[in-house]
Design goal:
This protein is of the alpha/beta class. It has 5 helices and 4 strands; from the N terminus they run βαβαββααα.
Length: 151
C-alpha cells in the first residue's frame, strides 16, 4: 500500500495520479503488495532530514530511506514477515521541485513521476555513485517512465 502524507498543502497536484503512479512502479518492480511511504514537504523540512541523515545542510528534491538497506540492484526482497513487506520511505520537497519545474518548463505532476522512478529505484538498491551503477539505474528509470507513459 502506498501511504502519502502531504505536509505541504499549498501546491496543487494530482494526488490520485501520484498514488496510482507509485503503485504501478511497485507492481512493475515486483512489489505490488509491499508498503511505500511518501512524505510531501517543503525545503525547510527536507533540509533538516538531509542534514541529519546525510550531513548535507541544504534542501534537495528527494530523499530515499530504504527498509532493506543492504539490497542490491535486481535482488528480490524475501519477506519473512508481513513487516518485511515494505520498500521504505520517500521524502519529497514540493517547494524544491516547483523551482525546478519553472526552470525545466515541466509540470509538477510530470516531475513527480520522474522522482518516483528515481526514488523507488534507490529504495530497491539502485544507485548512481559510479559510472556503471549510474548506467544501470538510468536504464531502469527510463524503462519505468516509459511504462508509466503508456497510460
Amino acid at each position: 500500500m502506498v501511504n502519502i502524507n502531504n505536509e505541504e498543502c499549498t501546491t496543487s497536484l494530482n494526488m490520485e495520479q501520484l498514488q496510482k503512479d507509485a503503485q504501478k512502479i511497485l507492481s512493475l518492480m515486483g512489489y505490488a503488495d509491499f508498503d511505500l511511504g511518501i512524505l510531501l514537504t517543503d525545503n525547510q523540512a527536507i533540509q533538516c532530514f538531509n542534514r541529519d541523515f546525510r550531513s548535507k545542510d541544504e534542501p534537495t528534491d528527494i530523499l530515499s530511506f530504504p527498509f532493506h538497506p543492504d539490497l542490491k540492484p535486481g535482488e528480490t526482497i524475501v519477506a519473512e514477515t508481513e513487516d518485511d513487506k515494505n520498500v521504505g520511505d520517500l521524502i519529497i520537497s514540493l517547494e524544491y521541485i516547483k523551482e525546478l519545474c519553472e526552470q525545466e518548463h515541466k509540470t509538477i505532476n510530470e516531475h513527480l513521476r520522474t522522482l518516483l522512478c528515481h526514488g523507488i529505484c534507490h529504495l530497491l538498491g539502485y544507485d548512481h555513485y559510479t559510472e556503471s551503477t549510474d548506467k544501470i539505474m538510468k536504464e531502469k528509470e527510463s524503462w519505468l517512465a516509459a511504462q508509466l507513459a503508456k497510460e
